[in-house]
């Protein structure tokens, strides 16, 4: 029997490895504890209280905030807005980002300029983009109204109809964040195994079959990564909604759960109830993320 190699297990590592591990990890853990985990626990604690942000004392009320959230009619309307907005933003930005990445992965004249133009909105402030798109969707003199008028179609009132208002906000968000999914997919395409694509072409596979059976499986890790990051980012959208609609029309026409946290905490001065909404959203996100990770692990096996 061969002797067991030394230095392979954790117990046999030299103390310098443990010291290096502590130097690299402990500062990051300290920052995460201070700026992520502690605020999270404080938020959960506040969700069991009735607290006005101007009052130094928070009154413990148990699960009363959660009962109120469950029984309020506007809670389910806001949840519906959040789900519709998030699904449309995730699917829309990922599908369009992949399509543009496939197009601009080819050797085309001026493709670098187009790539930069697609990515540019991602680094621009959401508030600035919201102001710009207010004029684009304006029902009186906006660009959308002008185009529809030229083809004989009456432009909808994006600021009075809740459905069209949510559509307007969603399109604006997708346009702003399209560059993110585009760049990630474009980078992933650089790592696609060319020999597999060539083998599919030699075997006479159609473009659709090559895309679905050869290319997409290689992009699966990237798609999984984007599905989580875009989901988390879209659930935290505040600036575009605040600039364009302030959660309206008709009260909660475009209000999402994040915007409800802001309304309850800083407009209605009910920070305890706002913390409750934030806690519910955190628990939902935690479950969704764990399911995504489990599905991805199962597919990898």
UniProtKB/TrEMBL annotation:
Membrane topology reported for the UniProt record: Multi-pass membrane protein
Membrane-spanning parts: 18-37, 78-104, 116-137, 164-188, 223-241, 271-291
Any one of the GO BP annotations: transmembrane transport
Recorded superkingdom: Bacteria
InterPro entries found in the cross-reference section: ABC_transporter_permease, MetI-like, MetI-like_sf
One term under GO cellular component: plasma membrane
Keywords: Cell membrane, Membrane, Transmembrane, Transmembrane helix, Transport
Subcellular compartments: Cell membrane
PANTHER family named among the record's database cross-references: ABC TRANSPORTER PERMEASE PROTEIN, INNER MEMBRANE ABC TRANSPORTER PERMEASE PROTEIN YCJO
Family that this chain belongs to: Belongs to the binding-protein-dependent transport system permease family.
Name this polypeptide is given: Carbohydrate ABC transporter membrane protein 1 (CUT1 family)
Lineage of origin: Bacteria, Bacillati, Actinomycetota, Actinomycetes, Mycobacteriales
